[in-house]
Amino acid sequence: MNTPARRDGTPDRRKRGAQPERGGASRNSGSRDARSAQRGTSARGAQQAGAGRGSAQRGSAQAPSPQRHPAPAGKKKPKPQRQVTAPPLLSNAKPARHQNVEPDASGGHAKLPWGEGERLQKVLAKAGVASRRAAEEMIAQGRVEVDGMIVREQGLRIDPQHAVVRVDGTRVVVREELVHVALNKPKGWQSTMSDDMGRPCVGDIVAERIAAGQRLFHVGRLDADTEGLLLLTNDGDLAHRLMHPSFEVSKTYLATVQGEVNNRAVGKRLKEGVELEDGPAKVDRFQVLELGEGRSLVKIVLHEGRKHIVRRLLDAVGHPVVRLVRTNIGPVALGDQRPGTLRVLGRDEIGKLYEAVSL
Protein backbone atom coordinates (compact mmCIF):
# COMPACT_ATOMS: atom_id res chain seq x y z
CA MET A 1 0.00 0.00 0.00
CA ASN A 2 1.43 3.22 -1.04
CA THR A 3 1.55 6.08 1.47
CA PRO A 4 0.44 9.35 -0.08
CA ALA A 5 3.05 11.96 -0.14
CA ARG A 6 2.77 15.54 1.11
CA ARG A 7 3.40 18.52 -1.04
CA ASP A 8 6.89 18.78 0.34
CA GLY A 9 7.51 15.18 -0.59
CA THR A 10 7.32 13.70 2.94
CA PRO A 11 4.94 10.83 3.41
CA ASP A 12 1.53 11.50 5.03
CA ARG A 13 1.22 9.13 7.97
CA ARG A 14 -2.25 10.23 9.27
CA LYS A 15 -4.88 7.61 9.38
CA ARG A 16 -7.61 7.72 6.87
CA GLY A 17 -10.80 9.17 8.31
CA ALA A 18 -8.95 11.05 11.04
CA GLN A 19 -9.91 14.73 11.45
CA PRO A 20 -7.28 17.33 10.75
CA GLU A 21 -5.90 19.19 13.76
CA ARG A 22 -7.07 22.47 12.40
CA GLY A 23 -10.22 23.07 10.52
CA GLY A 24 -13.84 24.23 11.08
CA ALA A 25 -15.14 20.92 12.37
CA SER A 26 -12.67 20.54 15.16
CA ARG A 27 -13.02 24.17 16.19
CA ASN A 28 -16.84 23.88 16.33
CA SER A 29 -16.61 20.75 18.41
CA GLY A 30 -14.28 22.45 20.82
CA SER A 31 -16.59 25.44 21.09
CA ARG A 32 -19.56 23.21 21.82
CA ASP A 33 -17.64 21.36 24.47
CA ALA A 34 -16.58 24.63 26.07
CA ARG A 35 -20.11 26.04 26.00
CA SER A 36 -21.48 22.82 27.50
CA ALA A 37 -18.93 23.03 30.23
CA GLN A 38 -19.83 26.67 30.83
CA ARG A 39 -23.55 25.86 30.94
CA GLY A 40 -22.90 23.05 33.38
CA THR A 41 -20.91 25.36 35.54
CA SER A 42 -23.57 28.05 35.31
CA ALA A 43 -26.32 25.55 36.17
CA ARG A 44 -24.39 24.27 39.14
CA GLY A 45 -23.71 27.86 40.22
CA ALA A 46 -27.38 28.76 39.83
CA GLN A 47 -28.40 25.72 41.84
CA GLN A 48 -25.89 26.61 44.51
CA ALA A 49 -27.03 30.25 44.44
CA GLY A 50 -30.70 29.17 44.66
CA ALA A 51 -29.87 26.88 47.51
CA GLY A 52 -28.06 29.75 49.16
CA ARG A 53 -31.04 32.04 48.72
CA GLY A 54 -33.38 29.39 50.05
CA SER A 55 -31.13 28.91 53.03
CA ALA A 56 -31.01 32.64 53.53
CA GLN A 57 -34.81 32.85 53.38
CA ARG A 58 -35.21 29.97 55.78
CA GLY A 59 -32.69 31.55 58.03
CA SER A 60 -34.51 34.87 57.95
CA ALA A 61 -37.80 33.14 58.85
CA GLN A 62 -36.15 31.31 61.71
CA ALA A 63 -34.33 34.38 62.97
CA PRO A 64 -36.99 37.16 63.09
CA SER A 65 -36.16 40.81 63.11
CA PRO A 66 -36.06 42.29 66.59
CA GLN A 67 -38.56 44.95 65.45
CA ARG A 68 -41.29 42.56 64.28
CA HIS A 69 -42.94 39.46 65.67
CA PRO A 70 -42.94 36.26 63.59
CA ALA A 71 -46.19 35.29 61.93
CA PRO A 72 -48.04 32.38 63.59
CA ALA A 73 -47.41 29.02 61.97
CA GLY A 74 -49.90 28.15 59.24
CA LYS A 75 -51.19 31.75 58.96
CA LYS A 76 -50.40 34.50 56.54
CA LYS A 77 -47.95 37.04 57.64
CA PRO A 78 -49.95 40.11 58.83
CA LYS A 79 -49.56 43.34 56.98
CA PRO A 80 -47.76 46.08 58.83
CA GLN A 81 -50.14 48.56 60.49
CA ARG A 82 -49.84 52.18 61.40
CA GLN A 83 -48.81 52.86 64.95
CA VAL A 84 -51.65 54.26 67.11
CA THR A 85 -51.74 55.46 70.68
CA ALA A 86 -52.84 52.72 73.02
CA PRO A 87 -56.23 53.38 74.76
CA PRO A 88 -56.22 53.96 78.52
CA LEU A 89 -56.64 50.92 80.69
CA LEU A 90 -60.17 50.43 82.03
CA SER A 91 -60.94 49.40 85.58
CA ASN A 92 -63.90 47.21 86.44
CA ALA A 93 -63.65 47.97 90.14
CA LYS A 94 -66.81 49.29 91.85
CA PRO A 95 -66.61 52.88 93.13
CA ALA A 96 -66.18 53.47 96.83
CA ARG A 97 -69.35 53.98 98.83
CA HIS A 98 -68.24 57.30 100.32
CA GLN A 99 -67.02 59.93 97.92
CA ASN A 100 -67.10 63.67 97.58
CA VAL A 101 -69.93 64.28 95.12
CA GLU A 102 -70.03 67.52 93.17
CA PRO A 103 -72.81 68.80 90.91
CA ASP A 104 -72.26 68.18 87.22
CA ALA A 105 -71.07 70.93 84.91
CA SER A 106 -74.58 71.59 83.61
CA GLY A 107 -75.76 72.57 87.06
CA GLY A 108 -77.93 69.51 87.42
CA HIS A 109 -78.72 67.69 90.60
CA ALA A 110 -75.68 66.00 92.16
CA LYS A 111 -75.99 62.23 92.13
CA LEU A 112 -75.34 60.22 95.25
CA PRO A 113 -72.51 57.69 95.34
CA TRP A 114 -73.25 54.24 94.02
CA GLY A 115 -75.68 52.26 96.20
CA GLU A 116 -76.70 55.12 98.51
CA GLY A 117 -80.02 56.87 99.01
CA GLU A 118 -83.41 55.78 97.68
CA ARG A 119 -84.88 55.90 94.20
CA LEU A 120 -86.99 59.01 93.70
CA GLN A 121 -90.10 57.15 92.55
CA LYS A 122 -89.94 54.94 95.64
CA VAL A 123 -89.62 57.96 97.91
CA LEU A 124 -92.66 59.58 96.29
CA ALA A 125 -94.66 56.39 96.67
CA LYS A 126 -93.75 56.10 100.37
CA ALA A 127 -94.76 59.74 100.88
CA GLY A 128 -98.21 58.90 99.51
CA VAL A 129 -97.87 61.01 96.37
CA ALA A 130 -98.68 58.21 93.94
CA SER A 131 -97.82 54.64 93.05
CA ARG A 132 -94.33 53.97 91.72
CA ARG A 133 -95.62 53.66 88.16
CA ALA A 134 -97.57 56.92 88.43
CA ALA A 135 -94.55 58.59 90.06
CA GLU A 136 -92.38 57.54 87.10
CA GLU A 137 -94.88 59.16 84.74
CA MET A 138 -94.83 62.35 86.80
CA ILE A 139 -91.03 62.41 86.61
CA ALA A 140 -91.10 61.89 82.84
CA GLN A 141 -93.57 64.79 82.51
CA GLY A 142 -91.19 67.14 84.36
CA ARG A 143 -93.52 67.64 87.32
CA VAL A 144 -90.99 66.70 90.00
CA GLU A 145 -88.24 68.93 91.41
CA VAL A 146 -85.33 67.94 93.63
CA ASP A 147 -83.40 70.76 95.31
CA GLY A 148 -84.84 73.27 92.86
CA MET A 149 -83.98 71.30 89.69
CA ILE A 150 -86.54 69.55 87.49
CA VAL A 151 -85.78 65.84 87.30
CA ARG A 152 -86.60 63.73 84.26
CA GLU A 153 -84.15 60.90 84.91
CA GLN A 154 -85.71 57.65 86.07
CA GLY A 155 -84.08 55.92 89.02
CA LEU A 156 -82.37 59.00 90.46
CA ARG A 157 -81.30 58.29 94.04
CA ILE A 158 -81.82 60.99 96.66
CA ASP A 159 -81.25 61.40 100.37
CA PRO A 160 -84.75 61.66 101.90
CA GLN A 161 -83.28 63.23 105.05
CA HIS A 162 -82.01 66.32 103.26
CA ALA A 163 -83.47 66.51 99.75
CA VAL A 164 -86.16 69.12 99.06
CA VAL A 165 -88.73 67.46 96.80
CA ARG A 166 -91.63 69.25 95.13
CA VAL A 167 -94.41 67.93 92.92
CA ASP A 168 -96.21 70.51 90.78
CA GLY A 169 -94.49 73.17 92.88
CA THR A 170 -95.79 71.81 96.22
CA ARG A 171 -93.30 70.62 98.81
CA VAL A 172 -93.41 66.89 99.57
CA VAL A 173 -92.10 65.94 103.00
CA VAL A 174 -90.42 62.58 102.55
CA ARG A 175 -88.80 62.11 105.95
CA GLU A 176 -90.57 59.20 107.55
CA GLU A 177 -89.93 60.26 111.14
CA LEU A 178 -91.62 63.67 110.77
CA VAL A 179 -95.05 64.04 112.35
CA HIS A 180 -97.63 66.70 111.54
CA VAL A 181 -101.02 66.51 113.25
CA ALA A 182 -103.96 68.85 113.80
CA LEU A 183 -105.70 68.96 117.17
CA ASN A 184 -109.08 70.47 117.92
CA LYS A 185 -108.34 71.75 121.41
CA PRO A 186 -111.39 71.71 123.62
CA LYS A 187 -112.34 74.67 125.78
CA GLY A 188 -110.83 74.52 129.25
CA TRP A 189 -107.71 72.60 128.20
CA GLN A 190 -104.21 74.07 128.61
CA SER A 191 -101.91 74.47 125.58
CA THR A 192 -99.05 72.70 127.32
CA MET A 193 -97.55 69.22 127.21
CA SER A 194 -97.84 68.90 130.99
CA ASP A 195 -99.43 70.87 133.83
CA ASP A 196 -98.10 71.11 137.38
CA MET A 197 -101.56 71.83 138.73
CA GLY A 198 -103.05 68.70 137.20
CA ARG A 199 -105.32 70.53 134.81
CA PRO A 200 -106.18 68.83 131.49
CA CYS A 201 -103.66 69.73 128.81
CA VAL A 202 -102.66 68.92 125.27
CA GLY A 203 -100.03 66.47 126.52
CA ASP A 204 -102.83 64.25 127.81
CA ILE A 205 -104.30 63.93 124.32
CA VAL A 206 -101.00 62.93 122.70
CA ALA A 207 -99.75 60.83 125.63
CA GLU A 208 -99.58 57.65 123.54
CA ARG A 209 -97.46 59.34 120.89
CA ILE A 210 -95.12 60.73 123.53
CA ALA A 211 -94.83 57.29 125.12
CA ALA A 212 -93.86 55.89 121.70
CA GLY A 213 -90.88 58.28 121.59
CA GLN A 214 -92.29 61.16 119.57
CA ARG A 215 -91.28 64.59 120.73
CA LEU A 216 -94.02 66.98 119.64
CA PHE A 217 -94.08 70.79 119.62
CA HIS A 218 -97.34 72.73 119.65
CA VAL A 219 -97.36 75.59 117.16
CA GLY A 220 -98.32 78.61 119.24
CA ARG A 221 -100.78 78.57 122.09
CA LEU A 222 -104.45 78.92 122.71
CA ASP A 223 -105.59 80.15 126.11
CA ALA A 224 -107.72 77.78 128.13
CA ASP A 225 -110.98 79.50 127.13
CA THR A 226 -110.14 79.47 123.42
CA GLU A 227 -110.79 76.35 121.42
CA GLY A 228 -110.00 75.17 117.94
CA LEU A 229 -107.04 74.36 115.72
CA LEU A 230 -103.65 73.68 117.24
CA LEU A 231 -100.83 72.15 115.18
CA LEU A 232 -98.34 69.70 116.65
CA THR A 233 -95.14 68.55 114.98
CA ASN A 234 -91.70 67.19 115.78
CA ASP A 235 -90.09 69.49 113.20
CA GLY A 236 -88.70 72.26 115.40
CA ASP A 237 -87.73 74.48 112.45
CA LEU A 238 -91.24 74.37 111.05
CA ALA A 239 -92.84 75.12 114.43
CA HIS A 240 -90.51 78.08 115.01
CA ARG A 241 -91.16 79.63 111.63
CA LEU A 242 -94.90 79.17 111.83
CA MET A 243 -94.92 81.13 115.11
CA HIS A 244 -92.49 83.85 114.02
CA PRO A 245 -94.29 87.02 112.87
CA SER A 246 -91.70 87.74 110.16
CA PHE A 247 -93.10 84.86 108.06
CA GLU A 248 -96.61 86.31 108.39
CA VAL A 249 -98.45 83.00 108.46
CA SER A 250 -102.12 83.93 108.71
CA LYS A 251 -104.45 82.65 111.43
CA THR A 252 -108.21 82.79 111.19
CA TYR A 253 -110.63 83.10 114.12
CA LEU A 254 -114.39 83.05 114.54
CA ALA A 255 -115.43 85.18 117.48
CA THR A 256 -118.82 85.60 119.08
CA VAL A 257 -118.80 89.06 120.63
CA GLN A 258 -121.16 91.21 122.64
CA GLY A 259 -123.19 93.83 120.79
CA GLU A 260 -124.07 94.28 117.14
CA VAL A 261 -120.91 95.12 115.26
CA ASN A 262 -120.85 97.85 112.61
CA ASN A 263 -118.90 96.06 109.90
CA ARG A 264 -117.60 99.14 108.12
CA ALA A 265 -116.62 101.26 111.13
CA VAL A 266 -115.14 98.48 113.28
CA GLY A 267 -113.48 96.81 110.34
CA LYS A 268 -111.79 100.07 109.26
CA ARG A 269 -110.48 100.71 112.74
CA LEU A 270 -109.09 97.22 113.19
CA LYS A 271 -107.39 97.27 109.79
CA GLU A 272 -105.79 100.66 110.42
CA GLY A 273 -104.47 99.52 113.79
CA VAL A 274 -105.33 99.76 117.44
CA GLU A 275 -102.95 100.93 120.17
CA LEU A 276 -102.52 98.29 122.88
CA GLU A 277 -100.44 98.32 126.07
CA ASP A 278 -97.62 96.44 124.32
CA GLY A 279 -97.77 98.38 121.05
CA PRO A 280 -100.05 98.84 118.06
CA ALA A 281 -101.77 95.87 116.44
CA LYS A 282 -103.99 95.41 113.44
CA VAL A 283 -105.84 92.72 111.51
CA ASP A 284 -105.44 91.66 107.88
CA ARG A 285 -109.16 91.05 107.23
CA PHE A 286 -112.37 91.56 109.14
CA GLN A 287 -115.92 90.45 108.36
CA VAL A 288 -119.24 90.37 110.20
CA LEU A 289 -120.97 87.05 109.54
CA GLU A 290 -124.08 87.13 111.77
CA LEU A 291 -126.02 89.62 113.90
CA GLY A 292 -128.76 88.89 116.42
CA GLU A 293 -129.90 88.89 120.03
CA GLY A 294 -127.33 91.48 121.05
CA ARG A 295 -124.40 89.42 119.76
CA SER A 296 -122.35 89.22 116.57
CA LEU A 297 -120.32 86.50 114.88
CA VAL A 298 -117.24 87.97 113.26
CA LYS A 299 -114.31 86.57 111.30
CA ILE A 300 -110.81 87.90 111.89
CA VAL A 301 -107.65 87.07 109.93
CA LEU A 302 -104.25 88.25 111.21
CA HIS A 303 -100.66 87.10 111.48
CA GLU A 304 -99.96 88.53 114.92
CA GLY A 305 -98.98 86.01 117.57
CA ARG A 306 -99.02 88.00 120.78
CA LYS A 307 -100.78 86.67 123.85
CA HIS A 308 -104.57 87.07 123.79
CA ILE A 309 -104.20 89.35 120.77
CA VAL A 310 -107.71 88.74 119.34
CA ARG A 311 -109.47 89.22 122.65
CA ARG A 312 -107.56 92.43 123.35
CA LEU A 313 -108.27 93.87 119.91
CA LEU A 314 -112.01 93.25 120.14
CA ASP A 315 -112.11 94.61 123.68
CA ALA A 316 -110.39 97.76 122.41
CA VAL A 317 -113.18 98.41 119.88
CA GLY A 318 -115.94 97.81 122.44
CA HIS A 319 -116.95 94.22 121.66
CA PRO A 320 -115.72 91.77 124.31
CA VAL A 321 -115.39 88.16 123.27
CA VAL A 322 -117.92 85.60 124.44
CA ARG A 323 -116.54 82.61 122.53
CA LEU A 324 -113.41 82.28 120.40
CA VAL A 325 -112.46 79.47 117.99
CA ARG A 326 -109.38 79.28 115.78
CA THR A 327 -110.34 77.69 112.47
CA ASN A 328 -107.26 78.04 110.23
CA ILE A 329 -103.48 78.20 110.41
CA GLY A 330 -102.14 79.05 106.98
CA PRO A 331 -103.41 76.40 104.55
CA VAL A 332 -104.63 74.03 107.30
CA ALA A 333 -108.33 74.20 108.19
CA LEU A 334 -110.11 72.75 111.22
CA GLY A 335 -113.13 71.70 109.18
CA ASP A 336 -115.62 69.47 110.95
CA GLN A 337 -113.04 67.85 113.22
CA ARG A 338 -114.53 67.03 116.62
CA PRO A 339 -113.09 68.61 119.80
CA GLY A 340 -110.36 66.58 121.48
CA THR A 341 -109.45 64.60 118.34
CA LEU A 342 -106.23 64.40 116.31
CA ARG A 343 -105.92 64.35 112.54
CA VAL A 344 -102.78 63.58 110.55
CA LEU A 345 -102.23 66.34 108.01
CA GLY A 346 -102.50 65.52 104.33
CA ARG A 347 -99.59 65.74 101.90
CA ASP A 348 -100.86 68.95 100.30
CA GLU A 349 -101.39 70.61 103.68
CA ILE A 350 -97.87 69.73 104.82
CA GLY A 351 -96.33 70.90 101.57
CA LYS A 352 -98.11 74.25 101.73
CA LEU A 353 -97.06 74.76 105.34
CA TYR A 354 -93.41 74.31 104.43
CA GLU A 355 -93.84 76.54 101.41
CA ALA A 356 -95.43 79.26 103.56
CA VAL A 357 -92.31 79.49 105.72
CA SER A 358 -89.79 79.01 102.90
CA LEU A 359 -88.65 75.53 103.90
UniProtKB/TrEMBL annotation:
Keywords: Isomerase, RNA-binding. It is an enzyme of class 5 (isomerase). Residues 37-63 have a biased composition (Low complexity). GO terms for biological process: enzyme-directed rRNA pseudouridine synthesis. Residues 1-114 are annotated as: Disordered. SMART domains: S4. GO terms for cellular component: cytosol. Coiled coil: none annotated. Its EC number is 5.4.99.-. Residues 118-179 form the RNA-binding S4 domain. Belongs to the pseudouridine synthase RsuA family. This is Pseudouridine synthase. The lineage of its organism: Bacteria, Bacillati, Actinomycetota, Actinomycetes, Mycobacteriales.
